[in-house]
Amino acid sequence: MGQISSVDLDSGKGLLGNYDPGRIYCELLGGSDRSTLKFPDLWRILSDLDIEELRARATDATSELLDLGITFTVYTDRDAIDRILPFDIIPRVIPADEWRTINSGVVQRVKALNLFLHDIYHDAKILKDGVVPEDLVRSNVNYRTEMRGYEPPCGTYVHIAGVDLIRDRSGQFLVLEDNARTPSGVSYVLENRNLMQRAFPDLLEGVAVRPVSDYGARLHDKLCEVAPPGAGLDPQIALLSPGIYNSAYFEHIFLARQMGVPLVEGRDLIVENDRVFMKTIAGLQRVDVLYRRLDDAFLDPECFNPNSMLGVPGLMRAARAGHVALANAVGNGVADDKAVYAYMPRIIEYYLSERPILQNVQTHICREADALAYTLDNLDKLVVKPVGESGGYGIMVGPKSTASEREECAALLKANPSNFISQPMIELSVSPTLTERGVVPCHVDLRPFAVTGKETWVLPGGLTRVAMKPGSIIVNSSQGGGTKDTWVLEADAR
Amino acid sequence: MTALLSRYAECMFWFGRYTERAACLARILEVQASFSRGARTEAADWAWIVRLYDDSERFFQTNPSANSRNVIRFYASDRENPGSIISSIHAARENARTLRAMISTDLWLQVNSFYNRFRNLPDTAHAEARIAQTCEMVKKEAYAQLGVANATLYRDAAWHFYTFGVMIERADQMSRLLDVRFAQIPGAAHDEPGELGDYGFWSVLLRSAASLQAFLRIAHRHRDPDTVARFLIFNRSLPRSIVFCVAEMERGMNELRSRFEARSTSTAHQRIDILRETLSEAEQDPRLIERLHSFNDMIQRQLIELSNELAYTFFDAQRPSSPAAMGATTGQSQTQTSSQSQGQSQSQGSS
């Protein structure tokens, strides 16, 4: 096999013959200076494939997803409609050296998030020192007074974190968002790998890719670490789900199965004497750790939404008494808020006296007069996001907006500036993706998953989401995004 | 060892029950459709199926007459009828969906593809001319479901609740079939004792119970109503006989107590003992055939009481406070009452 040079790029032959990411950073080819290929072996294998062959394999993989029920479910009055998250068959590859940066950056970030949460629910030094505005924290809807003075085991609040990363034109990874509540998507990481191993055994052959299959075992270990002291050597862990009508129910099943723990709903649990029990055929059985995939608001009708039928009355009492550990902790929403996000670099430096390893995307906090004025003047260049929303809703992408959309956005901004942040339009990196138009560059992001008990472990890989609509940069699954298998290589890029 | 969640035990029970129900119902419709064509008028009578499931009230609310078209629609594709094939397959699947963290992937695949296959059938598949083929497909798929469960389910406590569901439903279906069919023995009064008057009638009955071939093998020379009834009720080797079903449940209950530390099983055990005694008394009774209706009534009531007892003991259901409310009356097939739909209004709950 001869060396693959940049000449092959222009040869116009094979699957990738017409693939051209232009000046945008490409996950497969690297930056705009493409004098050497980043992954020559993979490039060669892909180039040799026939598009019909690729399509056939992609179709097989998709029907397998449906049969296996690896779906998110949309319920109508009458029926359950299972939709699969579109799966793109061309993997996204991360070399070992890049991964080392991501890994240490994510570990640093999670550490800072945990220290921040502990601080704001105890002495609030960071607020007194004026590093983060007090009202931003205290008046945040996700700030839970019930958490004041509570000591979580190991000091861990964010047991499972999903830190959303993007890559700019220079190839630098930036943090777009922290997810410290109930980040989802890890089941796709594991299932996507399974699919790739079946659809593309030849592609994986000879490439040393770090495995992801031990996620369930790792998660189980970490959750055991945060069990209350009285739980003994083999704590009872359960996964608390809102039930079959939740769109992420498949993931709840998946994780319960991977960990070998019962998947429970609120109605399976009861709190007696500040202890949590599940109702079994052998009577009541103690639960020590709850991995809950239920929002704070629904968790305990005694404390939060009194109409919640999904939660467990008395759960917070049991947690505060130290008889059950909740993962993730209650009240984390204040830390992954889009407004608090802007302060994360300063939060990292404040607690750790370290420079942030992963940078933020430049963020204008519209509650500040200068930032609001700047945002209003540059609406056509900025991305405006409401704070406290999730799922990609309510985002105004300036450069792709119409005049009337910008007017509408300006009105909203003026009416309630502190509800918004704005960021420059980042050109997300692209990765070759199979679409109806052939193999084309599509924008991607990356959500690595970090699991924390005493220490933090980061799953090598993470969820690569891909915006499959032409030109779209919104990768969220509720907005038509798909996913890719993410390969972290044992080796560095060449 | 983590004990089985009560809710999972309940879902396993109903998953088994609805799967078995779909299989039984499909077989009955299939046999009826295959043998009614070109048969004498009484064989072309479809109304007996409405009587079989005690559905007259519900059926005649929406149907002026029990003709073949209406009966087929009501029992095959009517979602408003909780006892239809589509409702049974759907209910089995919704229970399986809840159970997905426990059941084998192979079983889930079967449940899912079965449901999708039936749901996507064209309307023409439910026409009288096609219903026999459609029901044959349903029967095969439902048997496949029972088979995959058998071949792949882990034998823990959950398995026993699944078995209870299958066996209670199967025993109930058999008892109903005997009750309704023996009430319409053609020309019963005129037959010579020890003879089956209308061979066609009896073979249809045995086919409906999936027991014709076995019967012919063991009782070829004694084809009289008493032998048929005793075969279907008491034969220990016939997997559809009532005695067989009760014996399976008894075995399951014993294991549940000895291996899985289940809650006090004594009242549930008593219910099974009562069933066994009823059966053993009936087996000794030479004149059973004359009181078949009251016998079947008793069996069905005792099955309902057992089913309810499982709910009180294991499924976290509230035992009714008044003794009157505990008395079971036979009637329509039992359906799941647990709050499966709970939480639909709060479908989000998490991001």
Helix-strand layout with pairing:
The complex is a heterodimer of chains A (494) and B (351).
Chain A: H1 40-48, H2 51-68, E1 72-75, E2 80-83, E3 87-94, H3 96-120, H4 125-128, H5 134-138, E4 160-167, E5 173-179, H6 186-199, H7 201-204, H8 215-225, E6 237-240, H9 249-259, E7 263-264, E8 269-272, E9 275-280, E10 283-286, E11 289-292, H10 296-299, H11 315-320, E12 325-327, H12 338-341, H13 344-352, E13 359-360, E14 364-365, H14 369-377, E15 382-386, E16 396-397, H15 403-415, E17 420-424, E18 430-435, E19 438-447, E20 449-452, E21 456-458, E22 463-467, E23 481-488
Parallel strand pairs in A: 3-23, 5-13, 6-7, 6-11, 11-12
Antiparallel strand pairs in A: 1-2, 4-5, 4-20, 8-9, 9-10, 14-17, 15-16, 15-17, 18-19, 19-22, 20-21, 22-23
Chain B: H1 6-36, H2 47-52, H3 56-62, H4 68-76, H5 85-98, H6 105-119, H7 128-152, H8 157-182, H9 199-208, H10 212-219, H11 225-234, H12 242-259, H13 266-284, H14 292-314, H15 323-326
Strand content of chain B: under 5%
Rg calc of chain B: 20 Å
Low-pLDDT windows of residues of chain B: 189-195, 339-348
- Principal-axes shape call of chain B: globular
Alpha-carbon distance between the two ends of chain A: 17 Å
What structural category arises from helix and sheet content of chain A? alpha+beta
Total beta strands of chain A: 23
Q: Tell me the series of helices and strands of chain B, N- to C-terminal.
A: HHHHHHHHHHHHHHH
Question: Overview of this structure, please?
Answer:
- The complex is a heterodimer of chains A (494) and B (351).
- Chain A is 30% helix and 22% strand.
- Chain A is of the alpha+beta class and 494 residues long.
- A five-stranded mixed β-sheet of chain A has the order 3-23-22-19-18. Chain A has a five-stranded mixed β-sheet with strand order 13-5-4-20-21. Chain A has a four-stranded parallel β-sheet with strand order 7-6-11-12.
- Chain A starts with 39 loop residues before the first helix and ends in a 6-residue tail after the last strand.
- Chain B is an all-alpha fold.
- Chain B contains 15 helices and no strands.
- Chain B is globular.
- The A-B interface holds A 67-69, 75, 80, 181-182, 184, 236, 242-250, 252-253, 256-257, 261-265, 267-268, 278-283, 285, 293-295, 298, 308-310, 390-391 and B 2-9, 94, 97-98, 100-101, 105, 108-109, 112-113, 157, 256, 260-263, 314, 316, 339, 342-344, 346-351.
